[in-house]
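Annex B.
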Amino acid sequence: LTSVCLGYGCDPCCQTQRSKLQHRRARINQQINKEMRMRAGAENLFRATTNNKVKETVALELSFVNSNLQLLKEELEELNSNMEVYQTESESINVPMIPLGLKETKDVDLTVPLKDFICEHYGEDGSLFEKEIKEFMELRQAMRTPSRNQAGLELLVEYYNQLYYLDQRFFPPHRNLGVHFHWYDSLTGVPSCQRALAFEKGSVLFNVAALYTQIGARQDRSATAGIDRAIDAFQRAAGAFHYLKENFSNAPSLDMSGPSLCMLVRLMIAQVQECVFERVTLTTQDTHFTSQLQVAQEAARVRGRVLVLQTMTQPMVKDYVPFSWASMVQVKAEHFRALSHYYAAVALCNHTLQDEDCDEETEKFFLQFHVTTPAKPTLSQVLREPEERRKLGKAHLRRAVIRHEEAMRVHSMCKILRKMDILQEVLSFTHKRSLDKYSEMDQEDDFDETAEAPEIHSQSHQKPDIITPNFFMVSVTDIFQRLGPLSVFCARARWGPVRVVCLQRGEGCLGLTLRGDSPVLVAGVVPGGCAEEAGLREGDYIVAVDGEDCKWAKHGEVVHLLKSGGDRGVELSVITLHTHDAQVGAVSRSLSIPLCVCVYDMGGAKGQSSASLLNWNRKKNRDGGGVTKRLGSTFSLPFGNLRDSESMY
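Rhophilin, Rho GTPase binding protein 1: predicted structure tokens.
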């Protein structure tokens, strides 16, 4: 099941079980896309024609297309329900987890659009940036096949971080590059297409969460170390899905819609709770009465998966979620409900409590153990009289057997779950264990009717956390940094053509004041001085000195170049920002924004309406000027606390 890791991503030609699954999923996605285009064309023809003969023929063709689509979606559902491929190879018997497959995408050729934008917006030869464009496209190709480990996660986050720079460099607010990003729905295979870079960001982040689910499912949960890794992976998956839910609206595909993401967050949290229960049962060596009751309460906590099931039955999610997922969640809800009653029975029947054990603390704990407390017998009687404990324990065992049988009944109704041998083995083992214990407790002379055991109050040793994605786990360098610092050279800034100014040193000075770094700003010119006569203006940025590029140069470096000119003078290449307070100031504030574009134009794929618009929330940086750090790089902004680097020459 392990993928072969290359320099970037993993080998797409390596035929592991997981890669074969992804290849089959990609093939079905393409077939679904083809059938949907055929259906759209047939529906248009049906509405447009007035010929009844043609209408009958088109209606017949539509029935065939819809039938094919249904078969393809059922085949894709079976692939998405193939949980065993992602499970651990350990021989330990654990209930399988539900992982997600990655979203598939098409190739995108950015060469021509980026070259054109560099030439038009930055005034440079786009062909000089072929190396950078190729590097970015290779990174995108690699992130389509990430390895199922930490390296794969870092690859996805690296690409996600590079998208931030791409957004800043090439995507102005009121214009797009004409590039279409195609992604397939993770569960249905339905294609979506947008020109918004936010759609690309969201899809990559969805794959980060999906990869975490696969990493969590593959952990060997027979030891505490594996359980802890699984808990961490599922919590991070929940955090990524929650982050998407909070930062997306009007997503074009169902897998990134609000109800679906809410369902996925709850599913991940429920799987975290399962792992916590497994760790409690593994580490609870103490056979004390209260210790066993705590295990029962932990199992009752996992029983709360019924909330996940309720989310899956909502109108927008019900027809979208695979039937096997809903069945698995229902099976697990009944399974852990049965386990809670089983461990309660073990605590009541297998322990002989002495008078010193029935202290006030034990009575208080037992009083809070059940959701409802029966009037008779009293708790003191139950704790001190073995026969009363046996009767209550038998009642719990009876409910455990009933719940186990219900879990097995739901399991038998799902064809895909019936194929999962490990799940069948777990259900059969726990059912037989409870049945044997019940038979052991059942006495021949016991003519009393078995009472109804009350439900068990849920209690957890560890509350699941939703861990927000850490975008700083991978420090990246802007691939297109040769274009200059983002504080000035970005898609949102506008400047005039590069001007060449020849400065001749006058009576001891050049007559200008410099401020800041990368690039250095001409903060002022002396009236009547050399700089003003040469055409230098306040607010110009120095991009080169005597042909040497100075976009990234520090204040001191530019000063040194100016001084080294001597009597012959220096040749400055400068640019002037147009309305730089509004343009660059906005860029300065946006440098620390992880998801920085607020509104995108959906002029993209045909058939997409403006309702499919994908919006990102803008979180403004209110700090003003100074130095802003983002993704491991430091940008010196042209405004703010820069008086300490101001000099006059």
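Confidence is low (pLDDT under 50) at residues 1-7, 12-16, 580-645. The first strand starts at residue 181 and ends at 184. Further annotation is deferred to the next reporting cycle.
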